[in-house]
Amino acid sequence: MPIRYLIIDDEPLAHRVLLKYAASLPVLQLAGQCYDAEQARAVLGQEPLDLVFLDIRMPGQTGLDLLRGLAYPPQVILATAHAEYALDGFECNVADYLLKPFSEARFLTAVQRAAGQLQAQEPAFILLKEGRGYHRLPHSAVFYLKGMGGYTRVFHEGGVLTAQGNLRSILSGCPSVFLRIHKSYAVHTAHVTKVAGSRLWAGGEALPIGEAYREMVYRALGLAT
């Protein structure tokens, strides 16, 4: 299963090193690059990600402050030149702590640790509330989600249900195989059968790809824009 990752670091050199090392692991798929906590917060608020490479000392808010403010943090590998923050990092349950400059071998070890934790926490089912009852759906049975204000329509192999909660809140309980493609739509990537221009097909339906999501969607699916 692909691991979608985000780089958060104010140094361009750090981005180049991480991208170079990540290129040796096809399982890693770049979801974005941010240079400060404010940028990162906006990206992390759009959709769930699997892994973040996070610097600590950045202009404005520190990486640790950003991490502490996340309600549902992804796996985090701290990558910093400052060893004195190691204890703070592990108190935030980070997967690993890379001290710059680090080798490719050390990078691979950190990713393996994060991947192991991801595998252990990956839910097989999604719990959805509809009316007074709950539905427990295998995530693999869900084709796509459509946000409708305070509710979300869930299109799955057995039909359609209307779950309580907006699209963002529903996605927070979904595994990373779900990809936000539009402000009102998210899809299970295993059910994507075709992508063309600003449309994507999943569950036999053509769905819109929002302009703001287009580059990220194509990148996540391994396609060239």
UniProtKB/TrEMBL annotation:
Asked if the Swiss-Prot or TrEMBL record annotates the protein with the keyword Phosphoprotein, the reply is: yes
What transmembrane ranges does the database entry give?
Answer: none
Native source organism of the sequence: Phaeodactylibacter luteus
Q: Where is the Response regulatory domain?
A: 4-115
Residue numbers of 4-aspartylphosphate PTMs:
D55
GO MF annotation terms: DNA binding; phosphorelay response regulator activity
For the keyword Mitochondrion, the answer is no
Q: Can you give the residue ranges of the HTH LytTR-type domain?
A: 126-192
Which SMART domains does the record associate with it? LytTR (SM00850), REC (SM00448)
Q: What is this protein called?
A: Response regulator transcription factor
Q: Which InterPro entries match?
A: 2C-system_Tx_regulators, CheY-like_superfamily, LytTR_DNA-bd_dom, Sig_transdc_resp-reg_receiver
Q: Per UniProt, which keywords does this protein have?
A: Phosphoprotein
The UniProt entry, under Gene3D superfamilies, shows: 3.40.50.2300, LytTr DNA-binding domain (2.40.50.1020)
